[in-house]
Amino acid sequence: MSAQIHRPILRINDPEEIRASDIASTISAGKNIVLQFSRPSYSSSILKQLDALCHEFGENLDVRFYGHYSSVFDCSVVQQIPSVASLTIDCLMSATNVKALYDLPNLKALSVGIYELEEPQLLFAGNFRALRSLTLGETKRNSFDLSPLASFTDLKSLGLVSHSKNIAAISALKQLESLTLSSIKNTVRLDFVNHLTGLRDLRLILGGRTDISEVTHTTLRKLEVIRVRGLEQFSAKAFPALEELQIEDQIRLVKFDFCEVNSALRKILFFNCKALHSICGLKNLPNLSQLRISLTDLDFEQLLEQGLPQALKTFAFYTGKKKLNAEIRQRLDQLGYTDGLK
After folding, report:
1. pLDDT digit string (tens) for 140-173?
2. Do 110 and 204 share a domain, yes or no?
3. Which structural domain range is residue 300 located in?
4. For residue range 179-238, what is the model confidence (pLDDT) as tens digits?
5. Which residues pair with 182 in a beta bridge?
6. In total, how many domains does the chain have?
């Protein structure tokens, strides 16, 4: 996908015709477009028109090939859209002629998810060094050599699913702003993240480890930790510049502490952390404006009693019981907190 991740996205699936005027008006209105093809129904005329649009709109127009369930996707089709700047080839079991990707001179954003792909040297392609956004989906062997990433000096956004061979090379990417690590084995150290001085957004998804104490970052602004198996400990002190924190599906996490060093936090979300029975230090967060808690073992009244920051405007607290949820919502409304859903 395009590196311009903050713009809304309109998806157009398997178009039989493309109206250039509609594409132009949608992009002018502030949206990115994904023109996606789930089957080999694209004609030469469609691809020619698509190439012209890619030339005009660059990364605001993502071309996606996915599915192709009744056939093997032939990557050589991209030779007909040499102007493409943002390309997604994912949700595929297999593909042929993958090296056709190496001949796309204008490529700036690339997402690849081909399960049976065996191209360990994929990242050695010369044109990939100009990428600003890269996502590598899971493969059968997860054999991609990540060492070339050290030379991707324009890369701002990186997502890896299961790939970890020579992952420490990422530490050279001082300009990297957004990093997603999904399904990374617990034997793989993550301390290379500490060297990414430009990093602002980090997502840790799936995989497994009891803690992430090896990761400390003084300028990280947003952190998401989602369904990391076995996670029992977390130190918010390791991220003093954090503004947004989301902890989700962490069934072994029982306690969470905040302190004065976390004063930049504006938004906190705890979802489905069923063993979590203690959150301390919320009153130490003077800039906290949004707090959302769902399906935990926290006591609502005790949370109120510990004191909440004056800046808090949005406060939502959900249990697994509909009636209790309604009662808590009524109490929060009376206290002047919004639910943040309107």
Report:
1. 999 999 999 999 999 999 999 999 999 999 999 9
2. no
3. 200-342
4. 999 999 999 999 999 999 999 999 999 999 999 999 999 999 999 999 999 999 999 999
5. 161, 205
6. 2
